[in-house]
Amino acid sequence: MPEGNKAAVAAVAADAVRAARENAPTPPLPLFDRELSWLEFNRRVVAEAKSSSVPLLERLKFLSISASNLDEFFMIRVGEIRDLIAADVRHETVAPAERLDAVRTHCRDLLGRMYACLNEQLLPELRNSGIRIERVAELGKKDLAFVSEYFGRELEPILTPLAIDPGHPFPLLANLALNLALVLESERGDTQIVVVLRIPETLPRFVRLGDSRRYVPIEDVIASHAIRFFPGLRLRRTVPFRVIRNSDFAIKEDDVQDLLKSVETELRRRERREVVWLEVESDSLEALPNVIVLATGLEAEDVFIANGPLRLRDLMQIYRENPDPALLEPPFNPRIPTELATSEDIFSIIRRGDILLHRPYDSFTAVVEFVQAAAEDPDVVAIKQTLYRTDPGSPIVEALANAAERGKEVTAVVELQARFDEKKNITWARHLEQAGVQVVYGLVGIKTHCKLCLVVRREGRALRRYLHVSTGNYNAITGRLYTDIDLFTCDAEFGADAAQLMNLLTGFSVAGVQELIASKKPALQPKRFIVSPMEYLAWTIRMIEREIEHASAGRPASIVAKMNALVDPTVIEALYRASRAGVQIDLLVRGTCCLVPGLRGYSENIRVTSVIDRFLEHARIFRFANGGASEVYVSSGDWMPRNFIRRIELTFPILDPELVHRIESQILPISLGDNVKGWTLEPDGTYRRRVPGDEPLRSQEAFIKIARAEAVRLGPYDEIIRRPGSFRRKAKKRKKQQQQH
Questions:
Q1: DSSP state letter for 712
Q2: CA dihedral defined by 94, 96, 99, 100, rounded to 10 degrees?
Q3: Active-site residue, from 106, 225, 449, 550
Q4: 348 and 481 in contact (C-beta within 8 Å)?
Q5: Which helix (H) or strand (E) holds 560?
Q6: Which of 482, 511, 528 is the last residue of a domain?
Q7: Per-residue pLDDT at 12
Q8: How would you classify the pairing of strands 558-563 and 620-624?
Q9: In a domain, 467, yes or no
Q10: Sequence-separated (6 or more) residues with CB below 8 Å from residue 660
Q11: Of 48, 321, 355, 634, most Cβ neighbours within 10 A?
Q12: Among 54, 317, 95, 79, CA closest to 208
């Protein structure tokens, strides 16, 4: 964008945002309910678990993922609705109590579908394939002896029965933990005792019977031997149950003097927050002692009676322990782009031109090597990096620690408020500090969600900046499971923008950031970057408005936007206006979508596609036709209020024509054309699975084929990711041998 127009454009965009919010359309903006749209997304995940076209163990994995997703939904979304009810919030379009009723109904229906899938499809098919989940009552003498010995060796020494009576405090029911309620009575039958046994998290959920592929749920093992703790009593019944607690929290700047200590305090409080959901494995709620139900403070509508083992997320254990090729997707090892598979150092390669990765088809190994090379290169003087979610034993974290120990200036912005990764990030932050890294914890109330690594290298008498920016985390595990876009560049303007952004993250308070937002001449003046919360929303509205202007003038006008979620009403209203103006809009939204497509007078020109497949669609890509001079941008942030207002997000342009062409002619059209794993959002809020027809197109499979044809094969990912420079060493060896010959 020309510099002279930047200020004027920003002012126009800001005015557009204010106008959109101050002049809400009448009648009310057509929007799908956010929670119900998310539950529709999880139904699509369950549909993969039910699909006979998916390999059996992959279906089990999808069911496990859907259960994990639903647990988080209860902890965060249901927890938030309950907070609104407790605060007596009345200004919302739909009353929080009504929203809660609708969510309960849909969650109960979804859980019913999940257990039906398990009991009627997956378990019978697993048995036919030699993998069995059995009950203790079904076992023969040899297996019973094994289970008894296992209980005595592994369980009995660590289990602690907790009686519920006036002499004992009611036990803390840990969030998501499995528990057994035991109802006992004296031999005369005149005294009843209720005991809770918490099932240890340190042992496998399913006990494997020797070397076989047969399993018994750990709660079944405990229930069948629990009487050992109570000589002289009779065990009347055992009931597995678990609670889910409200787990969201927000730290207010006014209350914080030390962010790390504040996060640790909130984590301790989270362990005792109110219960929002209760699950019981039984025929009826009456089986669970009333004293436990009363202690949760829940109504009957907040209780689910499960027809099978609780915590279906634990089925992932069965998936991981049975790597049967016949029951899994064909293996795929990510490739390394041809331009990186040479004997040259990575900085020389980047100097020749920008490099785009489309993960996981292109390997995350290249990202690890970039950071490791920076740590080891004697000419590198500084590394500055953001860390949002990373993996155990992270090679990225170790490279940063190594760089600091070598005397380089290393700064890491570690986001302590990354939901459910808070404890991990606290551990990483302390590890990096001990290694000499300058660790910054981010901004209170504004999560640092952007992903970038800035390397400063001395070359001759000058310093050059090298940069990695991405839509995905610095995480080697998700690096092979999530689809993301990465860019390596040494563009001077990109580097200067990255330096400004890192200075903002390390040198400003929340108040300082808020002042930047309000200022007409902010200190952060990037030339290439679009940064949230300063300008991401205004930029988005401006880009949509520009397409409206092109359409009105008869020039090419279209938008293709790929993201995880579309929720923000200001953006949705702008998209409706664009549709009415004739702008063709294709949206690739994996999860929640509050926009209503195909609605007369609003969105006839909008199509919404969702792709659910073996890899989690995670990249955010925006393509604007711009009257024939198209522009492509990549972002760390979705189109949600939180990404516009409460997060540091980074959106950046793709400038290299070849890379733009790759996104425009390959990545986006193949994704949009998926008729095997693609779903189309209908105006009534349901999703219709597409029918392949004569020319089936499975986008992720197509990208795998492209990677195999155009990139260089590496060894097994789990090995290569720990020694990412090995392929370059092999290339050097080959080159040396060729020179000798």
A1: B
A2: -170
A3: 449
A4: no
A5: strand 558-563
A6: 528
A7: 42
A8: antiparallel
A9: yes
A10: 630, 632, 654
A11: 634
A12: 317
Is residue 145 included in any domain, yes or no? yes
- Above pLDDT 70, what percent of the chain? 90
> Which two tokens mark 627?
């009257």
Domain of 76, in residue numbers: 34-111
Q: Which run of H or of E encompasses 519?
A: none
Residue 375 is predicted with a pLDDT of 97
Cα–Cα nearest to 635, from 656, 624, 649, 648: 649
Between 527 and 283, the more confident residue is 527
The DSSP code for 639 is: B
156 and 295 fall within a common domain: yes
- Domain containing 353 — which CATH number? 3.30.870.10
- Among residues 296, 326, 356, the one where a domain terminates is 326
- Give CA–CA dist 285/301, Å, rounded: 11
Three-state SS at 359: strand
Same domain, 510 and 536: no
Cβ(452)–Cβ(497) below 8 Å: no
- Return the pLDDT at 725: 64
Provide the pairing of β-strand 409-414 with 447-448.
Answer: unpaired
Question: For residue 513, what pLDDT band results from cuts at 50, 70 and 90?
Answer: low
User: Are residue 493 and residue 609 in the same domain, yes or no?
Assistant: no
Q: Give the three-class secondary structure for 86.
A: helix
Residue 131: partners with Cβ closer than 8 Å, 6 or more residues away: 213, 214, 215, 318, 322
Buried b (16+ CB within 10 A) or exposed e, 507-532: ebebeebbebeeeeebebebebbbbb
pLDDT at 41: 98
Contacts of 430 (CB under 8 A, 6+ apart): none
- Asked if pLDDT for residue 18 goes beyond 70, the answer is no
Q: State pLDDT tens for residues 411-467.
A: 999 998 878 788 888 888 899 999 999 999 878 778 999 999 999 999 999 999 999
Q: What global pTM score does this model have? A: 0.91
Whether residue 118 is contained in a domain is answered as no
- Say whether both 88 and 161 belong to one domain: no
Tell me: pLDDT of 8 over 70.
no
Does residue 4 have a pLDDT over 60?
Answer: no
520 with 583, same domain: the answer is no
Q: 558-572: per-residue pLDDT in tens?
A: 999 999 999 999 999
Whole-number Å distance between alpha carbons of 392 and 734: 34
Angle between helix 395-405 and helix 365-376 axes, rounded to 10 deg: 10
| DSSP-based three-state secondary structure for 634 | strand
pLDDT at 307 over 90: yes
Long-range pairs of 426-432 with CB within 8 A, sequence gap ≥ 24 = 426/260, 426/263, 426/264, 428/387, 428/390, 428/394, 428/397, 429/260, 431/397, 431/401, 432/397, 432/400, 432/401, 432/404
The span from the CA of 612 to the CA of 700, in Å, is: 10
In terms of domains, do 70 and 176 share one? no
Residue 536: per-residue pLDDT? 96
Q: Read out DSSP for 593-618? A: B-B-TT-TTT-TTEEEEEE-SSSEE-
- 3-class secondary-structure state, position 687: strand
Measure the CA–CA gap between 241 and 171, rounded to whole angstroms. Answer: 14
Instruction: State how far the alpha carbon of 139 is from the alpha carbons of 124, 145, 224, 658, in Å.
Output: 17, 10, 12, 63
279-308: average pLDDT: 92
CB-based burial of residue 731 (10 Å sphere; 0-12 exposed, 13-18 middle, 19+ buried)? middle
Query: Is 225 a residue of the active site?
Result: no
